[in-house]
Structures are given as structure tokens and as C-alpha cells.
Write a structure and sequence with these properties.
Elements (H helix, E strand, L loop, with lengths): L1 E5 L2 E11 L2 H17 L4 E7 L2 H4 L16 H9 L4 E5 L11 E6 L7 E5 L18 E3 L3 H10 L4 E3 L5 H9 L5 E7 H6 L6 E5 L17 E6 L3 H8 L4 H16 L8 E9 L2 E9 L6 E9 L3 H17 L2 H17 L8
Parallel strand pairs: 2-3, 2-4, 7-8, 7-9
Antiparallel strand pairs: 1-2, 4-11, 5-11, 6-9, 6-10, 12-13, 13-14
Helix pairs in contact: 8-9
């Protein structure tokens, strides 16, 4: 945080870090626009940066291994004081942050579901995953999505798909494209004005869908320095308690199971009454042949209660076989890392 002279009165300047992708900049602009309305005397400057995964758009996400794939470079800037806070897609944030940083707030959440996007020209023929014929190619770089779809539609084929939303949709629609559909997050399409491409929303109750979304999906998480009280106070008015509690419960499930971005854990949270949160979760092996499921409803009124609730759901998953599935995945990853090779799911 710094000040700059404006007339005779110094003006506070807040520097906001974000990835440099079009969607990330759009999300940061949303946060900054909201904060300007709340704090009209403060100047906000957005600083975009490329992450590890942004720089390498070819390698499949699950081959990188490790955590902080989207956040390490930004956190380095935060540590040095080059930015005052970072706007993340919450699903990209590791569930354990460095000791000097904190998840300061979560903004109102966009639709958390995954969706199906059909190749142009095929929309009249296919609307849902259940409509797709054997061998139809599904584009996604998410192990979670592949595992859950394989569980219900083992006859489908998969191919990695990287890039921003525009790039992926162009690859899908290309005349020589082998893809039939893409699986994307609804939030990105809605925020970028491309909701007309959505042919099916996927959640636990969708006929022909039945898929749970990523931890934190649809949420924007703001990361700040511990002890930077001025910035933390500035952000407080932007927090959405229901979104924060739901996302904290989801992140607690993943953290308890020691999952990372390449672990196929799906979740779904719904408020079903006064302070009552329903959390559904699943862990599926990469082949889609084994799964562990869990579901609980509990009163949640604080972040601490949300974290405790997530731990209970994680324990239910473990009791139902999740740990066995994760042990196999972690063992395969460790074996390939020992050989200095990228882990690739079967």
C-alpha cells in the first residue's frame, strides 16, 4: 500500500495482483470496481502476471505435479510488497497457504457448476453427455472431470484441452477438430458473456450429468498478507459470508485428504435452510472404476465451523474408501517423480 499526492491530500494506492489471462483480468476488474464503490477515495492499480501454467500452454495440467501452479509468481510479488493483495479464481488456490498469507475474503460466488459445450454444427444432434456416441471426444485438462465422466460414460474418449476460454472454444469449433464437446466451468463462460454456448449444466441431480464441481469453483478468493490490517479492513466489506463458509468447507475437505489440483475430488455445497449447509463430495479413481461418496448437512455460522464440517465430510469419504483411491494416485505420482518424469494418470 502506498500514497500519492492528489492536490494537497495524499491518496492511498492499492496494487492488485492477478494472472494476465483475459478472464483473470476481468475478475480482477470486477473486484476493483466493487471496491471503488465502497472506497471512493482509494486508487486501485491492477498488475497482471503470467503464472507457470500460463507460460506453458502445451503440457497437460495434471503433468505439472505439485501445488501453487497458478499462484507462486503472484505470491512472490505479494511477499515483496509489490502488490497489496491478489485476486484468484478460488479453485486455483492451494488449500494450504504460506504462513505469511491469508485468504482475506471470498466475493459473491458465480455459478459453481461444470457445463457441456458442444461443437458448432452439432448442437441439434447432441445436448447432453448422455447423447454422445461411443468414441466421442471430450476435451478437458481436468483429471477430476475425466474421472467422473468415465464413471458414468466409460464409452467416451478424452483428449487434453488447454488455453483460455476463447482458445478452447476455437479449437472445439475448428473444421478439422476431433472434439465433440468441451467440459468447462460455468463461471468462466458467464463472466465472459458466452453463456449461449452452454448446452448442459452438470451437478449431482442433472439427468445424464451427475458430476460434482471443483473445490472453490465459481468463487473469487482474495489473498493478502497476514498483519496488513489496513488492506484486510478494506476488503472486509466485499466478503460474502455464505460463499466464504461454503468454500471454506470445500477447501477443508480437500486439505484434510491432502488433495492437489490433479486429485479427482468433486464437491457440491448448497444452503438448504437457516445456516444449514449441505455438502456432497466424491473421490473417483482416474479410470472411473472406483469411487467414494459422502454427504452431510450441518449448521455452519463461522469459518471455524465450516472448516470443522469439511473435516467430517473428508472423514466420511475416507471411511467409504477415498483414502485407498488417493493412496494409489499418490503412489503413482511419487514413482514418476522419483524418475524425474511427469505423473500421467492412466
Amino acid at each position: 500500500m502506498s500514497t500519492t499526492a492528489a492536490s494537497d491530500t495524499p491518496k492511498t494506492v492499492i496494487r492488485v495482483g492477478t494472472r494476465k489471462s483475459a478472464l483473470a483480468l476481468l475478475q480482477a476488474d470486477y473486484v476493483v470496481s466493487s471496491l471503488r464503490k465502497l472506497h471512493p477515495t482509494v486508487d486501485f492499480e491492477i498488475k497482471g502476471m503470467h503464472s507457470t501454467a500460463d507460460k506453458d500452454k502445451i503440457t497437460a495440467l495434471y503433468k505439472f505435479g505439485g501445488k501453487g501452479l497458478w499462484t507462486n509468481e503472484l505470491e512472490a510479488e505479494l511477499k515483496l510488497g509489490q502488490v497489496d493483495f491478489i485476486v484468484h479464481s478460488l479453485k486455483d488456490m492451494p488449500t494450504v497457504l504460506p504462513d505469511e498469507f491469508v485468504l482475506a475474503c471470498v466475493t459473491p460466488r458465480e455459478d459453481a457448476r461444470d457445463v457441456v459445450v458442444v461443437k458448432k454444427g452439432l448442437e441439434d444432434k447432441y445436448k447432453t453427455l448422455a447423447d454422445l456416441p461411443a468414441g466421442a471426444v471430450v476435451g478437458t485438462s481436468s483429471v477430476r472431470r475425466m474421472a467422473q465422466i468415465r464413471r458414468r460414460y466409460p464409452h467416451l474418449a478424452f483428449k487434453d484441452m488447454r488455453g483460455n476460454i476463447d482458445t478452447r472454444v476455437k479449437k472445439l469449433d475448428a473444421e478439422d477438430s476431433e472434439f465433440t464437446v468441451l467440459i468447462l466451468a460455468a463461471a468462466g463462460l458467464l463472466r465472459s458473456g458466452k453463456e449461449d454456448r452452454i448446452t448442459q449444466y452438470l451437478d449431482s441431480t442433472t439427468v445424464g450429468g451427475g458430476m460434482l464441481h471443483a473445490v472453490g469453483q465459481g468463487g473469487l478468493g482474495i489473498e493478502a498478507r497476514v498483519g496488513d490490517q489496513k488492506t484486510l479492513d478494506l476488503l472486509k466489506a466485499l466478503e460474502d459470508n455464505e460463499a466464504m463458509f461454503a468454500c471454506e468447507a470445500e477447501r477443508s475437505v480437500m486439505r484434510t485428504l491432502e488433495g492437489g489440483c490433479s486429485i479427482p475430488i468433486g464437491v457440491e455445497t448448497k444452503w438448504v435452510g437457516d445456516n444449514k449447509l449441505k455438502l456432497t463430495a466424491t473421490v473417483v479413481n482416474v479410470e472411473g472404476t472406483e469411487a467414494a461418496d459422502a454427504e452431510k448437512t450441518e449448521e455452519v455460522k463461522t469459518r471455524e465451523e465450516a472448516v470443522a464440517f469439511g473435516i467430517k465430510v473428508a472423514q466420511q469419504l475416507a471411511d467409504n474408501g477415498a483414502q485407498k483411491i488417493l493412496d494409489v494416485i499418490n503412489g503413482e505420482r511419487a514413482a514418476t517423480q522419483d524418475k524425474k518424469e511427469p505423473w500421467v494418470p492412466a
